[in-house]
């Protein structure tokens, strides 16, 4: 019951924001709200990995980028030159290609957005699966370092490859038609519907993850967080469950990447950068680790402020600072902070040089 | 039920267990006693698959446990109650129990409900506290929870690692009474204890472990009367000599 109420409140808030914006004539805010929603989809997935299963990933921007880049490349890179190859013919035969005109009026043959999206997400899932098997055997900082390494590889690949546009990234990505009359695309005319598409997706993600956390799988994940050995001796196949949730969160990240790329009409290497991963970790920490709604709330607030440019050029510095402050003063997350008590102990922290427990 | 032959195990180059042979038959309480560092916990961990055996064999109901992953052993009916309880502190009592029932997950909700009811009958205090976080229970209650959690898997062999650690004598008495009751209900228990006197008092047979070797074994009553055992582990040197 409590879960349904929370979900209803969230739905009402989503609608309220839209109504408020259209009433005050500030509909342009919805663009940033939509983008925040897609980042939030990634963050709630990461929240379950970090807060519930107790694993850390500094490579989630990598999965986001895999989704975004692949979908962008497949729907913009012209396949006309290869139209004789077996692969392209096969794709054509399966009805997965569309033809159009590029900006110079030349013929253009590209993959349909649906197929590109599915392929991109599938690739992200496969990569998460393959690197997850060895990497999730690591713990603590070792796991952080391994996932960090993965993130750096993806970033450098995006930056180095001309297929992915190098430092420029890929632009002029077409809209993603979900169904007739509804497509993921930027621009003022489709702003409101895209706002609801994004939030529908996020709330779907929340429902999925909430059910997961409260199921047998969720119990197993929380047990792994408590003590991996104890969970093993209860018959929980810890390696499998860790891999499962890691792949699931990578899929959510990739979906977020695909949608945001089509919404923005492009993607650049900064989306794959390590600072993005650090930012996601910081947001999950601010939200209180094992706190799905907390992570979601803080994700919207911080992403929105960041996208509005409130932090200016100090954007990354602000997120680094947030991570330090949270670890020092509110390791339970900002929503569980006891302000009065913290203020009292503030002096103590500097005198004693850190938290004792 | 459990048959161990020439078992060697340890951590890295350090061999903790040296050629251990022992067996547990269905329906008995077997206790392993010994001082700190004798290898009691290592022995249980090796059976449970958490420590890999270097050589020797561990047969449980005819199956070789050495080749299995730790997480697949409980499904065979061999479950451990770990040392220091290790309940999942941030989960409720009932969630802990349901987690213990992880291996019977495919047998339907009704089986799980029945098992839950059975544990609550065995440990009524857990029923009262079922919504409470396990970390907020007292030491004795946590021990009961750890035992109940293991029993949720419907094990044929329960291995308990020092259930009396850090508990008041009166609580220990209660815990040991439950162990006897488990045996009387047809369960098999392998009990590792430092509290040798209490363990031997309820056990059918016992093994005395010293620096990784079994030095004495036999019926519990005999061990209680054995002079070496008394001197080394029961603290009777001054009285007897």
Largest interface: A-B, 19 and 27 residues
Poorly predicted sequence stretches spanning 5 or more consecutive residues of chain B: none
Structure classification of chain B: alpha/beta
What is the CATH class name of chain A? Mainly Alpha
End-to-end separation of chain A in angstroms reads: 36 Å
How many helix segments of chain B?
10
Q: Looking at the structure, what is the overall shape of chain B?
A: globular
Number of domains of chain B: 1
Strand order of the largest sheet of chain B: 6-7-8-3-9-10
CATH class of chain B: Alpha Beta
**Beta-strand proportion of chain A:** 5-15%
Using DSSP, what is the number of strands of chain B? Answer: 10
Order of strands, widest sheet of chain A = 1-2
Secondary structure: number of strands of chain A: 6
Task: Give, in order, the helices and strands of chain B.
Answer: EEEHEEEHHHHEHEHEEHHH
Termini separation of chain B comes to 39 Å
Task: Report the radius of gyration of chain B as a whole number of Å.
Answer: 18 Å
Kindly report the average pLDDT value of chain A. 89
Q: Kindly identify the CATH topology of chain B.
A: Rossmann fold
What portion of residues of chain B is helical? 25-40%
Order of helices and strands of chain A: HHHHEEHHEEEHHHHEHHHH
């Amino acid at each position: 019951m409590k879960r349904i109420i929370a979900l209803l409140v969230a739905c009402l808030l989503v609608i309220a924001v839209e109504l408020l914006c259209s009433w005050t004539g500030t509909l342009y805010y919805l663009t940033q709200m939509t983008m925040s929603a897609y980042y939030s989809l990634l963050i709630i997935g990461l929240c379950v990995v970090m807060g519930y299963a107790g694993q850390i990933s500094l490579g989630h921007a990598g999965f986001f980028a895999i989704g975004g880049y692949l979908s962008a490349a497949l729907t913009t890179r012209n396949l006309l030159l290869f139209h004789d190859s077996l692969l392209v013919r096969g794709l054509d035969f399966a009805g997965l290609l569309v033809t159009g005109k590029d900006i110079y009026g030349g013929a253009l043959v590209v993959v349909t957005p649906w197929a590109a999206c599915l392929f991109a997400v599938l690739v992200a899932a496969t990569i998460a699966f393959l690197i997850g098997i060895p990497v999730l055997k690591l713990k603590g900082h070792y796991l952080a370092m391994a996932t960090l390494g993965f993130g750096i590889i993806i970033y450098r690949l995006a930056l180095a490859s001309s297929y992915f546009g190098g430092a420029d990234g890929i632009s002029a990505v077409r809209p993603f038609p979900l169904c007739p009359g509804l497509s993921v695309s930027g621009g003022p005319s489709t702003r409101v519907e895209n706002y609801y598409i994004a939030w529908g997706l996020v709330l779907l993600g929340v429902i999925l993850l909430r059910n997961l956390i409260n199921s047998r799988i969720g119990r197993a994940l929380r047990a792994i967080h408590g003590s991996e050995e104890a969970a093993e001796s209860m018959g929980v196949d810890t390696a499998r469950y860790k891999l499962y949730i890691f792949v699931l969160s990578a899929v959510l990240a990739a979906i977020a990447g695909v949608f945001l790329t089509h919404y923005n009409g492009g993607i650049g290497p900064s989306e794959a950068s390590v600072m993005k991963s650090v930012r996601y970790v910081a947001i999950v920490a601010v939200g209180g680790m094992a706190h799905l709604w907390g992570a979601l709330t803080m994700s919207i607030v911080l992403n929105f402020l960041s996208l509005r440019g409130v932090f200016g050029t100090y954007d990354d510095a602000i997120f680094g600072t947030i991570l330090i402050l949270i670890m020092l003063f509110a390791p339970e997350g900002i929503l569980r902070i006891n302000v009065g008590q913290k203020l009292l102990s503030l002096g103590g922290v500097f005198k004693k040089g850190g938290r004792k427990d | 039920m459990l048959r161990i032959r020439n078992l060697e195990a340890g951590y890295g180059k350090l061999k903790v267990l040296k050629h251990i042979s022992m067996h547990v038959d269905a329906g008995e309480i077997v206790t392993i006693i010994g001082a700190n560092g004798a290898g009691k916990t290592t022995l249980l961990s090796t059976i449970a698959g958490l420590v890999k055996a270097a050589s020797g064999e561990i047969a449980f109901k005819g199956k070789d446990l050495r080749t299995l992953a730790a997480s697949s052993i409980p499904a065979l009916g061999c479950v451990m109650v770990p040392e220091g309880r290790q309940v999942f502190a941030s989960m409720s009592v009932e969630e802990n129990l349901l987690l213990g029932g992880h291996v019977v997950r495919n047998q339907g909700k009704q089986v799980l409900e029945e098992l839950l009811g059975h544990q609550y009958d065995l440990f009524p205090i857990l029923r009262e506290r079922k919504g409470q976080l396990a970390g907020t229970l007292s030491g004795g209650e946590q021990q009961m929870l750890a035992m109940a959690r293991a029993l949720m898997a419907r094990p044929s062999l329960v291995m308990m690692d020092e259930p009396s650690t850090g508990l008041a004598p009166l609580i220990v008495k209660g815990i040991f009474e439950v162990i006897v009751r488990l045996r009387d209900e047809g369960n098999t228990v392998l009990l590792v204890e430092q509290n040798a006197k209490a363990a031997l008092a309820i056990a059918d047979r016992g093994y005395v472990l010293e620096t990784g070797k079994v030095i004495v074994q036999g019926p519990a009553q005999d061990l209680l009367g054995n002079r070496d055992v008394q001197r080394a582990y029961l603290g009777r040197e001054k009285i007897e000599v």
